[in-house]
Please model this.
Amino acid sequence: MQNETQTTMQPETRSETKTTKCLNCGMEFEGKFCPECGQSAETGRFTMKFIWENLLAAFLSKDGGIWFTLKNLFTRPGAMIIEILNGKRRRYFSPFPMLIFALTVYILLASLTGSRDNYRQAEQTYMEEKTTNKDESVELSTDVEQSKVYAERYNRVKKIGGNCLKFYNNHYTVIFMLTLPLFLFAARVCYGKSNRRRYYRAEYLVAITYSMVIVVIYLWLVSLTYLFSESISDRMGAYMPFAFVIAFTVCLRKMMGFSIAKTAWRSLLAVVLYYMTLGFIAIIGIIFGIIFLNKFM
Model:
């Protein structure tokens, strides 16, 4: 009789556990997050409130997101990068989305302030003056047919160079992203063989990308300064290589294990090597352009 009583009371005391089916991977689980893919259990339809709350969380959260990453990037950049390389990544915004965000803000600031438009206008005026001067010199040598041919080829090459410069000015952010491999090459060469063995190329690239974020934020200041003083903004723009050196130094010092002075010196060498490599690529492009024009034009 006692056994029957126990068996009849057992279903009344048993508590049913609530499970949730993940809408992303289909796994049934208990708790607030799916153990398979990490998606939240509370996943409903998109509403304006939901989008606004997530946007604020991404920017203003003190425990992670863009604001948290920016704060650590300027207060403890070296320690932050070491933590990311050691696996503590959930709280930090990923390097490449962070760089894209910084570049997007820079494009908006440059468009609103007109700083890039002013630079393009000055460059266009310079190119027009050079073209006018060259046209005058061509007219002086029109008596010789061969010199006319050379002058035409030179003007074509110069036009190609002007178009390349115009493309660089109009697509500055794209060039910025495309030259990351050059910075990676320069950093791996200049920071020593022992560090090349300690860190993968991708780990170097993480630190370099965060360094680029600092440089782009410096460009924010250049654009904002343009609202108050064009001359000061131009001077700040001229100090871009030093911004690279400072950004490399603060981000890679702890990673490399060097002193501040040694890291700054190696960073300066890396920036110089970067510009030398970029210039070499540009010269090779111009040479191939001349060869192409001489053969087919």
About this structure: The mean pLDDT is 77. The first helix runs from residue 2 to 13. Residues 214 and 247 are 6 Å apart (CA to CA).
